[in-house]
Amino acid sequence: MGKHFGELYKMRHIITYSISPLEQRAFAGYFTKGFPNLLRRAKNRVFRIVPQLVIGYVIYSWATEENARSIRKGFEGPTE
Known about the structure:
Oligomer: single chain
Radius of gyration: 30 Å
Protein name: Cytochrome b-c1 complex subunit 8
Family: Belongs to the UQCRQ/QCR8 family.
Keywords: Electron transport, Membrane, Mitochondrion, Mitochondrion inner membrane, Respiratory chain, Transmembrane, Transmembrane helix, Transport
GO biological process, one term: mitochondrial electron transport, ubiquinol to cytochrome c
Largest sheet: none
InterPro entries: Cyt_bc1_su8, Cyt_bc1_su8_sf
Strand content: under 5%
């Protein structure tokens, strides 16, 4: 679309902006703002998510035990 990096071709009625990759900061504010915000959001939602996970685990464990019990043969062993 143009010449060198940062000198994009000029087209009428189209506005383009560019920034050098050396000027960008990929993780700007990650540890100072992003991670504390993640912890705050997780703390606010813990009472919505944890009960559902516990209920799901209880149902899953009950269902696997019930399935193992229901597919077992009624073998009583040798009778003498």
